[in-house]
Amino acid sequence: MTNEELILKKLEALEARIEPMARKAEELNELKEDLIPLGNQFVHILIKELQEVEAGFQLEDLFLLIKQVLRSVRNFTFAMKQMDNLVEFIMDLEPLLKSSVPTLIEYLDHLEQRGVFRIIKAMMDVRAKIASAYGPEDIDQIGDGLVALLGLTKKLTHPQTLAILEKVAEIPSKLDLSASKDIGPFGLFSACSDKGVKKGLGVLMELTKAMGELKSNGKPALLAPSDS
């Protein structure tokens, strides 16, 4: 092989190595030409946006922010750990929620069907009406009256009291007012011979004795005038 042939062979080998590099360089050049317009547009937008915050932004503020972030790295780490614990807690709680939420929804739907929420809303409306119609002092007085009425209701629940009230409530159904007649003093005396009238007068006397206590229990008894 002559020197010329050897040189040509080496040149061909060198050309074969250089050709891929040339193609890559050409591709990079094409990419560069494609990116230059995008880069120019990005720089233009960046300058425009920075101009809007130029008055409120100082380079010193950026350094202060970086320092504060560096100082708070430990806090950030602690917060991330707590976040992991919270996520684990939610993951553990998820099966329980899946089973309890439908039950809760069913229970609330049952309350809705029974009208519990409507009753609560009506009670809230009543409270609003009371608040608009009465002042705080009036409401306090009404509260005291309700407490007294509850005490009275408690007394009315005594078995003997309930028995008397039931008998009194039955009286109107047994009366025949159409058969009633006018009666004078003599008729009253003659009616006293009736057995039922005697029983009624006996009951009336007992009630009269009991009602005598209203004078001392309702208000303090007045002192009787002295003989002197």
Residue ranges: pLDDT <50 for 5 or more in a row? Answer: 220-228
The major sheet is characterized as:
none
What is the N-to-C order of secondary-structure elements (H for helix, E for strand)?
A: HHHHHHHHH
> What integer value in Å does the Rg equal?
51 Å
> Distance between the terminal alpha carbons, to the nearest Å?
169 Å
Class inferred from helices and paired strands:
mainly alpha
Mean pLDDT across residues: 80
Q: In total, how many beta strands?
A: 0
Strand content: under 5%
Proportion of residues in helical segments:
over 70%
Count the helices. How many? 9
Tell the overall outline: rod-shaped
Explain the layout of strands and helices.
Elements: H1 3-52, H2 59-71, H3 73-113, H4 116-133, H5 136-156, H6 159-174, H7 185-191, H8 195-211, H9 214-218
